């Protein structure tokens, strides 16, 4: 993975001490969209780094509703489901700014968190999503349909 900031490198290396030091700096670009759109939070989720995900989610400037790069996921929440990282899903869904629908531009070919959880047969995650008052149960598959799977 190409890492073009010290924060992205530290997240990828799971170096908690450096991450904490970097995040204390006011000018840190915690949502820096790198060369291949690898945000620090994306790297933490992709690496199943629960502790680092917690650290990043506690940063006041973190953007939690960003579409991940080069996946069929509509959001980082969908990515956590696709990867089977339930602990990270539950961290993300509790964030006050999370969009449980994972809305992205219609041109972005992707699947919503609810759609991914249904495809993956994660009934507890489906129930958690359905309990959210803002969930769109009629959200459309913006990819290929179930025949693709």
UniProtKB/TrEMBL annotation:
Pfam families: Ank_2 (PF12796). Transmembrane segments: none annotated. Gene3D superfamilies: Ankyrin repeat-containing domain (1.25.40.20). The keyword Aminoacyl-tRNA synthetase does not apply. Keywords: ANK repeat, Repeat. PANTHER family: ANKYRIN REPEAT AND PROTEIN KINASE DOMAIN-CONTAINING PROTEIN, ANKYRIN REPEAT-CONTAINING PROTEIN-RELATED. It comes from Tritrichomonas foetus. Signal peptide: none annotated. This is Uncharacterized protein. The lineage of its organism: Eukaryota, Metamonada, Parabasalia, Tritrichomonadida, Tritrichomonadidae.
């Amino acid at each position: 993975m190409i890492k073009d900031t010290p924060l992205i490198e530290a997240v990828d290396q799971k170096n908690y001490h450096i991450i904490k030091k970097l995040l204390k700096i006011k000018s840190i670009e915690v949502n820096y969209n790198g060369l291949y759109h690898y945000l620090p939070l994306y790297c933490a989720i992709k690496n199943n780094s629960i502790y680092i995900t917690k650290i990043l989610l506690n940063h006041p400037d973190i953007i939690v509703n960003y579409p991940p790069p080069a996946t069929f996921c509509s959001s980082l929440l969908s990515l956590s489901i696709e990867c089977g990282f339930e602990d990270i899903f539950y961290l993300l869904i509790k964030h006050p700014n999370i969009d449980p629908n994972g809305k992205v531009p219609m041109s972005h070919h992707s699947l919503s968190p609810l759609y991914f959880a249904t495809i993956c047969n994660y009934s507890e995650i489906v129930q958690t999503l359905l309990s959210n008052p803002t969930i769109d149960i009629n959200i459309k598959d913006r990819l290929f349909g179930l025949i693709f799977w």
